[in-house]
Write a structure and sequence with these properties.
One of its GO terms (molecular function) is ATP binding. The protein has 16 helices and eight strands. The chain is an alpha/beta fold and 403 residues long. The chain has three domains: 174 residues, 3-Layer(aba) Sandwich (Rossmann fold), CATH 3.40.50.300; 84 residues, Helicase, Ruva Protein, domain 3, CATH 1.10.8.60; 109 residues, Arc Repressor Mutant, subunit A (Orthogonal Bundle). The chain has a five-stranded parallel sheet with strand order 2-3-4-1-5, with helices on both faces. Strands 6-8-7 form a three-stranded antiparallel sheet. The chain is globular and about 80 Å long. The relative contact order is 0.10. The structure holds adenosine-5'-diphosphate and magnesium ion. The site of adenosine-5'-diphosphate has 19 residues, from helix 2 and helix 10. Magnesium ion binds next to helix 2.
Length: 403
């Protein structure tokens, strides 16, 4: 028998559940789309474009709506013979205006003439970028997605929108479409940037359960074989995602995971239990990602708490955790922090949901103190810690001790 066979039971086509699938229609965003469409109208009228700023939490349809409208705009511009270019620059791995400029420049120049991401004065990069834009001519819409990653270093957002009025370019009308997941980014922009960039602002609010139901239902219809989804699966996935984040991305992941669990289990139907299990697994994945991102000090504190968990003496007091932490820190040659700092680490780990904290009252002596224990199962904590080479053999020993 073949090792891989097409899925005849669960998925008809998994692609509509994937992140980068571009749906034919955008659901439940009529108002936002109308505002966005109006803001783009000058392009078709042959007027200079407006700068547009979209903001809202992750997963609420900002990228998908932008791609949808720009695809239509490009088609229509072509049929009216309007000179329009669209440049999309994802900024998720970019941390400064300078890098944005270099990336844009390199997109325009192509691989053979690309410049390196260091070594030029910023203004030179801007000037080279202006020359490329001028050469392109017409209207150039520049989409800077997840632009909040550049933080307070927002020169590019000041420079680009003014290139034309400042006479840096002659033959081109640049327009910026900035997209941000972070509300505070907009508020913290320098006032001079805010005025131009946020000429048209469009807010994308989180989805409610009903809206998510419509979005997920449409994808589910394409993704699953007929009669595979039991009736409460989509509403349940929508309800979970609405309660937590209002993100369609989260809802789609739940639905996808639920289907994968059913398939792995050779079940013929996806039912609400699969969705609940998917929710648990995705939450755990998220928690594990969070643990990986901790600092070495945070990891060492987790090692210490895990050690007490293994010997069944957790919850334990800060003092004991601290002593164990110091032993571990010395063993891997990390400078041990003072006890106050470890207290801060412990409360931060609790805030993230990795530890559970409880307050005890010492009746006799009249004081009160905190005790900590793991809030995640020991096995997954140790598994994550084992991936971190800085911790040397501590996690392996923990793992062996817990067998
Ligand atoms: N209104 C919508 N209609 C259809 N699909 C949507 C809608 N909103 C979000 N999605 C889907 O949800 C996922 C996340 O949307 P995305 O636009 O990437 O979110 P954002 O850019 O706001 O983080 C994508 O797979 C997208 O196709
Ligand atoms: Mg996005």
């Amino acid at each position: 028998m073949a090792m891989f066979t097409p899925d005849e039971n669960i998925f008809a086509d998994e692609y509509p559940l994937r992140e980068n699938y571009q749906p034919q229609q955008i659901q439940e965003r009529d108002q936002e789309l109308e505002k966005f469409q109006n803001a783009l109208q000058p392009v078709i009228n042959g007027a200079p474009p407006k700068n547009i700023f979209l903001y809202g939490k992750t997963g609420v349809g900002k990228t998908v709506a932008t791609n949808y409208l720009l695809n239509h705009l490009q088609q229509d511009a072509q049929s009216y013979d309007i000179d329009l270019n669209v440049i999309k620059q994802p900024c998720n791995n970019i941390s400064s205006s300078y890098q944005v400029a270099v990336n844009l420049l390199n997109q325009l120049r192509g691989p053979t003439e690309s410049v390196s991401t260091t070594g030029y004065p910023q203004q030179d990069v801007f000037n080279m970028l202006y020359r490329e834009l001028d050469e392109l001519g017409g209207t150039v819409l520049i989409v800077l997605d997840e632009i909040d990653n550049i933080g307070s270093n927002d020169d590019i957002l000041y420079e680009l929108p003014r290139a034309e009025s400042n006479g840096y370019v002659d033959d081109v009308w640049p327009g910026i479409i900035g997209i941000s997941n972070d509300f505070t980014f907009r508020d913290n922009l320098s006032p001079k940037v805010k005025d131009t960039l946020c000429e048209e602002e469009i807010h994308f609010p989180p989805y409610d359960a009903e809206e998510l139901g419509a979005i997920l239902g449409d994808r589910a219809e394409k993704a699953f074989h007929e009669n595979v989804l039991s009736g409460d699966v989509v509403p349940l996935a929508a309800a979970f995602a609405a309660q937590d984040s209002g993100s369609a991305r989260q809802g789609l992941r739940l639905l996808h995971k639920a289907g994968e669990l059913a398939r792995a289990n050779d079940d013929r139907e996806v039912v609400d239990d699969h969705v609940r299990q998917a929710q648990t697994e995705l939450e755990r994945d998220q928690l594990e990602d969070g643990m990986r991102e901790l600092t070495t000090q945070g990891h060492l504190v987790l090692c210490a708490v895990s050690a007490f968990e293994i010997t069944n003496v957790a919850p334990v007091r800060t003092q004991e955790i601290y002593d164990r932490y110091v032993t571990y820190a010395e063993r891997v040659d990390v400078d041990a922090l003072g006890e106050r700092r470890i207290r801060d680490h412990l409360s931060e780990l609790s805030l993230h949901g990795f530890l559970q904290v409880s307050q005890r009252n010492d009746g006799f002596h009249g004081g009160s103190y905190y005790e900590y224990e793991l809030n995640v199962d020991l096995e997954s904590v140790v598994a994550v810690l084992q991936e971190i080479s800085r911790l040397e053999d501590i996690p392996t020993q923990l793992s062996e001790a817990s067998q």
